[in-house]
Amino acid sequence: MKDGEKVAKLRQLKGIKQESLAFDLSISQSELSRLENLDVIEKEILSQIADALGVSQEFLEKFDLDSALYNISNKIENSTISENSNGISQIFNPLDKVVELYERLLQSEREKIEILKNK
Known about the structure:
Blueprint: H1 3-13, H2 18-25, H3 29-35, H4 43-53, H5 57-62, H6 65-77, E1 80-83, E2 89-92, H7 94-117
Antiparallel strand pairs: 1-2
Helix pairs in contact: 1-4, 2-3
Protein name: Transcriptional regulator with sigma factor-related N-terminal domain
Pfam families: HTH_3
Domain HTH cro/C1-type: 7-60
């Protein structure tokens, strides 16, 4: 997968708009769009993008959407079932944790926007 594609897919999975990420990087939305179309992004820029997305540069470099989706799908099929002290079965679905993380990230971005609006 091309560096630009990795940036775009991870940005989309995190629910971040181009405009927001571009703002965090102090570049224009059109410049971010250009970066997302590149085969190879310079290491320094890729590092800045990874920081803005809240991941390590290594994670971004090795990011593979197909593997991520496969792992999520596989974990859903193998969800853990446990029984609490009341004898009630509970199903722990890893996708619920992904959704919870996504919602926390989205709330964090909303809070950042509010802080910036109030400056």
